[in-house]
Amino acid sequence: MDDRFENRAENIADQERKIQAEIDAKAPAGGESKEEGAVQAGARKYPEPPFPEQHQRKPGDEAALDPAPMYDAPFWKGSGKLEGMAAIITGADSGIGRAVAVLFAREGCDIAICHLDEEGDAGDTKAAVEAEGRRAIVLKGDAADPAFSEAAVKATLDAFGRLDVVVPNAAFQEHVEALEDLTLEHFDRTLKTNLYGYFNLVKAAVPHLKPGGSIVMTGSVTGIMGNDNLLDYSMTKGGIHAFARSLGTHLAPRGIRVNVVAPGPVWTPLNPADQPAEKVAKFGSQTVMKRPAQPEEIAPAFVFLASPQCSSYITGEILPIIGGYGGG
Hints:
The protein is of the alpha/beta class. It has helices at about 5-25, 95-105, 120-130, 145-160, 185-205, 220-225, 230-250, 275-280, 295-305; strands at about 85-90, 110-115, 135-140, 165, 215-220, 255-265, 320.
């Protein structure tokens, strides 16, 4: 071998060691990384872990969450992006669904609030929508039941005389530590709520949507990245993404757009009603921003994708809102 290659290799190795030595000299003692708080880049300060340890019985109660989820976005000024429209939102009693309902109302939209059995939370969402000067109805039922979706769409049309925006959002999620613990009953419930529920609502609603109407589904980062303890949930969220992309193409000739918002961790009742209390205390800390999103940080994306003023040329897209890439 030519000595020139060997000499160059040795010189490069010396250069690499020099670069390493310079970085090592700047590292904190013991090799520990500098501790930093959560990223605060919003219109107001948001809570960050550790949270109080807490666990809830499903489907979860927003009124019992500590700290209370921030959903009302007081800094958001409505500008008629959904003026005169009507929307149906499943899982609108709390979490992302509630925040979306409030911002839709602030943009001029009447809201049909669908929920499972959380009457108190649903009543709070109804009051919040009405405080924005819009009409609201509350509909209790199982999203996995096609008859409920048909009835809910009919009730929306009867109440408001129209339907413009459909938001399939209700979800079931439960972590399991081992595949063997994922029972058929558990797997079936996840698919029924998260896939059948979306299909049922869309199928019932589409015949009543006119050109300019839209469907905005709630996906998840788990449908993009996967999750080792949410095998069934991740499967359904990936299915939702594929469904929306296909449905967007299918409905484009009718002037109906279909898109997905795919959040990372969000501070809603879904997670304290899923994970052990000690894990809830650290919820969201693994993201780049070192905290979960608050519902009001996710809802503006739904407004953007629902409004024909904002996104008339967008369909079949999945919009991740996950607090950055590269977290632990």
